[in-house]
From TrEMBL, chain A:
Protein's name according to its UniProt entry: Iron-regulated ABC transporter permease protein SufD
Family that this chain belongs to: Belongs to the iron-sulfur cluster assembly SufBD family.
Domain spans labelled SUF system FeS cluster assembly SufBD N-terminal: 10-175
PANTHER family, per the entry: PROTEIN ABCI7, CHLOROPLASTIC
Record InterPro entries: Fe-S_cluster_assembly_SufBD (IPR055346), SUF_FeS_clus_asmbl_SufBD_core (IPR000825), SUF_FeS_clus_asmbl_SufBD_sf (IPR037284), SUF_FeS_clus_asmbl_SufD (IPR011542), SufBD_N (IPR045595)
Domain of life: Bacteria
UniProtKB/TrEMBL annotation, chain B:
A matching Pfam family: ABC_tran
Name this protein carries in UniProt: Iron-regulated ABC transporter ATPase subunit SufC
Annotated ABC transporter domain residues: 10-254
Keyword match Amino-acid biosynthesis: no
Family recorded in the similarity comment: Belongs to the ABC transporter superfamily. Ycf16 family.
Keyword Cell membrane: yes
GO molecular function, one term: ATP binding
InterPro entries to which the protein is assigned, alphabetical: AAA+_ATPase (IPR003593), ABC_transporter-like_ATP-bd (IPR003439), ABC_transporter-like_CS (IPR017871), FeS-cluster_ATPase_SufC (IPR010230), P-loop_NTPase (IPR027417)
Lineage: Bacteria, Pseudomonadati, Pseudomonadota, Betaproteobacteria, Nitrosomonadales
PANTHER family: ABC TRANSPORTER I FAMILY MEMBER 6, CHLOROPLASTIC
Organism: Nitrosospira multiformis
This protein's UniProt keywords: ATP-binding, Cell membrane, Membrane, Nucleotide-binding
């Protein structure tokens, strides 16, 4: 890999220095994809608050850190991982500091699910190149996105899920990405493909074993085939000292459905970009998010829903709860392209400020180029409702209990939408504990 | 029921209160003893709902004069939650909806808070479930109301039943029912008032705040007070309510006293 791209950018330098030289793949298109990304990464600069897309998110603390590639992952005790296991998920892929851990994983082939592929990308890419090539690198554009470019430049491993035509997978797939080492940069790359008429629930779960400083730069691409359905739960509970940059790009085919619940609880600075393309008629997406942060945390969610074709539906509810001197950002773009008639879109951004020092910036953004559309959007930023507090106190609940209960309820509306009961329960407990700490 | 040797629960003297600097209560006097049921009647804007909220401690109302003793203690020394724990209960005219907080969780939290205040055992979720289901029968409530958000999507009548359910769980010394009859159809009114009657005993007291006489057909008051212009202008027995029903409020005339500030 060329080192010329590092030039004056110390941040990139630290990211790239000592990264293991990735072996060339036998797949020419794959090598070309990485080479293109290396090229772009070299031209792009670390965004600053002068960039419109990053105006609230100052990455200078990230630029000041130096990062190394992960050392050989310490053999993780099964017990460390079991803490994060999700009872309902019979299929599980575990990555530690970006490295696949077969001994901790239960890929699909062990379950004898015929045709279903759930394994790590690097082991399966050659055998499944035909299925992968039309999708990998096709949705997560890196021409003007440094982090996606870096992830693609380092493209090596991550989770691969291919659900064959017509199959309904009755167990959630748990992709567990665990950070264990300090000062490590990892670039997990996931690809989820639901072929026509298939159905699957995938949990993408970022966790940490400690409060280390590290950076996760994740990219996930999702292709939902004709009449297929994907339910995608993304949980980010990284170390509160860590940096988390996530890019997810989704493409929906005819009459397909994408449901997403993303929950951000961790990281010192986190940024999640979710770009959903309603790329064929009659597609539908429901995108919900919650950021619950405290202390000096910053959580930035940028979503874009692209109504590229007629007769599509989108629903979005995003909530932020900021306490301490935390800063939450939401930028939700809805684009209705010319010709995307009969679009039905509703977006709501609701935000709760729990401290005078906390800050929330929310920006719904509608760009409509069709004339026969139904688009509703709204944003509110507020504090806890004094009438609700009074009602609870009038029943004997202390002011603190009343506040905690209402804060919890505000966030629970999103968590309740997670279709995995044990995860829902665990997150509710986590939220309750986090609120009580404040 | 009036008893000669009952203890005084509530003693209100010259109570004045304001909202946003506008004085609403202009000197309310009232004594309530254990075992008694008091009805406070009046037109809209007479100050009766303000009186109820001031007793419960709503922060939008500023007490500007007078005093209230609850079982000998200065009520205004207590925060709203302390008043509740001491045994003051307000059934809200418009119970608020709190989506995301399950009704059963809320009811159990409130119940256990008062239990521990009274030095009694708290109930775990399973024990509480059995306990609350028994109480719900009193109000002919469907148990699935436990699984919903607090008052979320409840009809007006269901909200009022949920209020009286809380009264049944918390067993207050003084229950203030603010227009609990409003929005109820005749069946719901019968059920709710029947529940209240079963909860009334010689050791507690009830203040019914109402616009109409009809609730008093079901809950027989010992005293009827008429509030007007922020004061109680007339007090009588239950027959006074019937007079009001036939004659309206106008015959009581204008305020008899000049405003205190004049």
């Amino acid at each position: 890999m060329s080192m010329s791209l590092v030039n004056s950018n110390t941040y990139l330098e630290s990211l790239l220095q000592g990264q293991p030289r990735l072996p060339a793949s036998p797949l020419a298109w794959f090598n070309q994809l990485r080479a293109n990304a290396v090229d772009h990464a070299g031209r792009l600069k670390l965004p600053t608050t002068r960039d419109e897309e990053w105006r609230f998110t100052d990455l200078s603390p990230l630029a000041r850190q130096s990062f190394q590639p992960a050392r050989a992952a310490a053999a993780q005790q099964a017990a460390d991982v079991e803490h994060f296991s999700v009872a309902e998920a019979a299929i599980r892929l575990v990555f530690v500091d970006g490295k696949y851990m077969p001994q901790l994983s239960t890929p699909a082939e062990r379950l004898g699910n015929r045709g279903l592929i759930v394994t790590n990308l690097s082991s399966a890419i050659t055998a499944n190149a035909e299925a992968i090539e039309p999708h990998l690198g096709q949705y997560a554009r890196f021409e003007d996105n440094l982090f996606a470019a870096l992830n693609t430049a380092f493209l090596h491993d991550g989770a691969l899920v291919i659900v064959p035509r017509g199959a309904a997978i009755d167990t959630p797939v748990h992709v567990l990405l665990i950070a264990t080492q300090p000062e490590v940069a990892s670039h997990p790359r996931c690809l989820f493909i639901a072929e026509a008429g298939s159905e699957v629930t995938i949990l993408e779960d970022y966790v940490s074993l400690n409060e280390a400083v590290y950076v996760t730069n994740a990219v996930t691409e999702i292709a939902v085939g004709d009449n297929a359905r994907i339910s995608h739960i993304r949980v980010q509970r990284d170390s509160t000292e860590a940096f988390h940059i996530g890019n997810c790009a989704v493409s929906l085919a005819h009459a397909s459905r994408y449901r997403s619940v993303s929950v951000a609880l961790g990281a010192r600075i986190s940024r999640y970009d979710l770009n959903t393309g309603l790329d064929a008629e009659d597609a539908e997406c429901v995108i919900d998010g919650l950021a619950l942060i405290n202390g000096r945390q910053l959580a930035d969610t940028h979503s874009s829903i692209d109504h590229a074709k007629p007769n599509c539906t989108s629903r979005q509810l995003h909530k932020c709860i900021a306490d301490g001197s935390a800063h939450a950002v939401f930028n939700g773009k809805i684009m209705v392209r010319a010709g995307a008639q009969n679009t039905d879109s509703a977006q709501s951004s609701r935000n709760l400020l729990l401290n005078a020092k906390a800050r929330i910036d929310t920006k719904p953004q509608l760009e409509i180029f069709a004339n026969d559309v139904k688009c509703a959007h709204g944003a509110t930023v507020g504090q806890l409702d004094s009438e609700e507090l009074f009602y609870l106190k009038s029943r004997g609940l202390s002011g603190v209990t009343a506040r905690n209960l209402l804060t919890y309820a505000f966030g629970a509306e999103i968590i309740d939408r997670i279709p995995i009961a044990s995860l829902k329960y665990r997150l509710e407990q986590t939220v309750l504990e986090q609120i009580k700490k404040n | 029921m009036i008893h000669q040797d009952s203890k005084t629960i509530l003693e209100v003297s010259g109570l004045q209160a304001a909202v946003d600097g506008v004085e609403i209560l202009k000197g309310v006097d009232l004594i309530v003893k254990s075992g008694e049921v008091h009805a406070i009647m009046g037109t809209n804007g007479s100050g009766k709902s303000t009186f109820a909220k001031v007793l419960a401690g709503h922060s939008a109302y500023q007490v500007t004069g007078g005093s209230v003793l609850f079982e000998g203690q200065n009520l205004f020394d207590l925060e709203p939650e302390e008043r509740a724990r001491a045994g003051v209960f307000l059934a809200f005219q418009y119970p608020i909806e709190i989506p995301g907080v399950s009704n059963s969780h809320f009811l159990r939290l409130a119940y256990n808070t008062l239990q521990s205040q009274r030095g009694k055992d708290e109930l775990d979720p399973l024990e509480f479930e059995d306990f609350v289901r028994e109480k719900m029968k009193l109000l002919e409530m469907n148990p699935n109301f436990l699984d919903r958000g607090v008052n979320e999507g409840f009809s007006g009548g269901e909200k009022k039943r949920n209020e009286i359910l809380q009264m049944a769980l918390l067993e207050p010394r003084l229950a203030i029912l603010d227009e609990t009859d409003s929005g109820l159809d005749i069946d719901a009114l019968r059920i709710v008032t029947n529940g209240v009657n079963k909860l009334a005993n010689k050791d507690n007291a009830i203040i019914l705040v109402t616009h109409y006489q009809r609730m008093l057909n079901y809950i027989e008051p010992d005293y009827v007070h008429v509030m007007r212009g922020g004061r109680i202008v007339k007090t009588g027995g239950k027959e006074l309510a019937l007079d009001l029903e036939t004659r309206g409020y106008d015959w009581l005339g204008v305020e008899r006293r000049a405003p205190a500030s004049a």
